[in-house]
Amino acid sequence: MDISWFHLGLLVSTGFLAGIINTLAGGGSNLTLPALMVMGMPAEVANATNRVGVVLQGLTALLGFRHHGKLDASDTGGIMVPTIIGGLLGAAAAAYAPAGIIKPLLLGTMLSMALIILLKPAIVAPPPGTEPRKVKDTPSSWWGLGLAGFYGGFVQAGVGFVLLAALAGTLRYDLVRANALKMLCTLVFTVVALALFVMEGLVMWIPGLVLAVGTMVGSHLAVKFAIRAKPETLKWFLFVMTLCGCVAAMLT
């Protein structure tokens, strides 16, 4: 596929914004998927190609959080197990679900997250100095992470919000560390999905890599912002992004 200068600028700019949004909250694909489809890609090809940027953005964010000492790897095994199990169950359920269920589920999730942040902010933004819990010591985290994984396998869109609620709400990670672990979980999901899409021949590599340039730059800058920003700022950014997710769900 030939890429015009307009498409080049569109992919890089939307990728840049999506890299920031996905690293600090979630929902960046609401920008990148339409940008890819503007180029004439069918929805399934755009969905597959979009994962190239998501994977490289995730790697960039993880390296950045790790460099700043914000990637807590002490319990990644405990976090990943229920998340992956939930993801597999969600993907299996999606194969048999009615076609019309996705939009109400996405909208309901976004509205619920917005209300939680507004009415119970301590759930997603624990007070400073709160010590994170281990999955093995927090049975409720299995359900929270499993639900996040199920949602990710079932819908994918907006999974970052659900993962943040599970990581901050049940395990009490602050928003910076929760975002780092969210990126790890999302990266694992997406690598598996991308491999399947590649085998099906659905990935268009040149647009995907152009998009990835923008997502990587955006993600790199977002990590720097997250390290320096006040928790209150990150909380309100997350709130605004959930509202944007609600609007996107209603318009799709």
UniProtKB/TrEMBL annotation:
Principal place of residence: membrane
A single cellular component GO annotation: plasma membrane
Spans traversing the lipid bilayer: 6-27, 77-97, 104-123, 143-168, 180-199, 205-227, 234-251
InterPro entries with a match to the protein in the record: TM_pro_TauE-like, TSUP
Membrane topology: Multi-pass membrane protein
Keyword list, A-Z: Cell membrane, Membrane, Transmembrane, Transmembrane helix, Transport
A UniProt-annotated Pfam family: TauE
Localization in the cell: Cell membrane
Taxonomy, superkingdom: Bacteria
The keyword Cell membrane belongs to this UniProt entry's keyword annotation: yes
Family stated for the protein in its record: Belongs to the 4-toluene sulfonate uptake permease (TSUP) (TC 2.A.102) family.
Name of protein: Probable membrane transporter protein
Organism, as annotated: Photobacterium ganghwense
